Amino acid sequence: xxxxxPWNWRLGKNKTRTTGxxxxxxxxxxxxxxxxxxxxxxxxSLPSVDVSENKKEYSVRAELPGISEKxxxxxxxxxxxxxKGEKKEEKEEKSKNRYYKECSYGSFHRSVPVGxxxxxxxxxxxxxxxVLSVTLPKKESKSNKTVIEIN
Length: 151
Prior knowledge:
Elements: H1 22-34, E1 49-53, E2 57-63, E3 72-77, E4 80-94, E5 99-113, E6 124-128, E7 131-137
Antiparallel strand pairs: 1-2, 2-7, 3-4, 4-5, 6-7
């Protein structure tokens, strides 16, 4: 039954405690209050990635809103597709009585294990409206079956 309770380190989102004892709850409150960013789930800073496969190809789709195409790097090494990206954004407003500047920086790295059954010379990637689509054609498999004639 414990598996059905949502896991959440931050107590503000729901009232679920992770430690279960009063002393443990006290320490949890202290740590989440002092450094709330340490308790944020790591996945909140990573883009969503969908991977699918059919007989001919693998398809990888990643949501990368606000990232420029030139700031995305795709690499393949030892059966793993790596998607790296970096976002740099600065906003500045000046008026007679006010000056406003906001800076936002961040980077991510997602690794998608696909295997060595990919024909990399035919791989294609498209980036449109914040969505990266990568198509990885599979290598044609040669039959391992050998027919031996009987004399």
